[in-house]
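debug: dumping io for the single-chain case to check the tokenizer round-trip. Nothing else runs in this session.
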Amino acid sequence: MSIQVVGRQRELELVRAALASGAHILIEGPPGTGKSTLLRQVAESRHTEFVLVEGSAELTPARLIGSFDPALVLEQGYRPENFSDGPLVRAMRGGGLLYIEELNRVPEETINVLLTVMSEGEINVPRLGRVPADPSFRLVAAMNPYDSVGTSRISTALYDRTCRVSVGYQDAETERQIVRLAASRAKPALIAEGVELTRATRDHPDLRSGASVRGAIDYARLVPELVGLRAVSDGDWQAGLDAALTTLSGRVRLHESCRRSADDVIEEIFRRVRAVQPDGDAAGGETSPGE
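debug: decoded output
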């Protein structure tokens, strides 16, 4: 099945051009902005393997590079066929696209391994020897600019070895299109409401970071299920609020100075977007996302 990215033509062109030029790439953007989907489409068009690695403190050099099978080493010694390729060596040998998410969470010693590969186009593995990278091998790393955890590990040396592509949130119409594709059974008004709720979290003064379009997708999927279980109307106020709290409160991050809970902020946003009070009175008349 072909992978299609929505509303990312400029970024798609930049990534394709950078990879074709021989460059490695650093993509900066908040979660849920289509970075992985974009790169999968690029890999598909290049007919190369897409190797995904989730960045974390547990991503050691050994896990990235690979290791010898201890049982086979005891029996046969350090032979090349007894080495199990990690994602980096696998992508290097096959000329694939290695995508590392959340680079700023990766330990510094692991980042240093990546720097060596980007500079030298090869890696020397103890007891295995030199592993050259296929000419079509490319490294793409991604990080969330709003997440300060571990950002000191992203040195100027890494920026100097990569082309940087910044990816932001899409516009409202593009996000509605994404939700329509992912929640095809949801009614247009419900999709619009989910997108409006989600976008409102991104510029709320109490929130350090808001929700991605994934929040709107889950909202558009959850509301119909919830109103069906409760046997209430599509525009039921409490069902909408509960769905908003469930799908958005865990996706936002409060400012350290905020004394309210995430639920309080989401309820405030929901009241403003729906403009309906619990007693059913609405500013300017009641509107139902099911209509």
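debug: round-trip ok. The first helix runs from residue 9 to 20.
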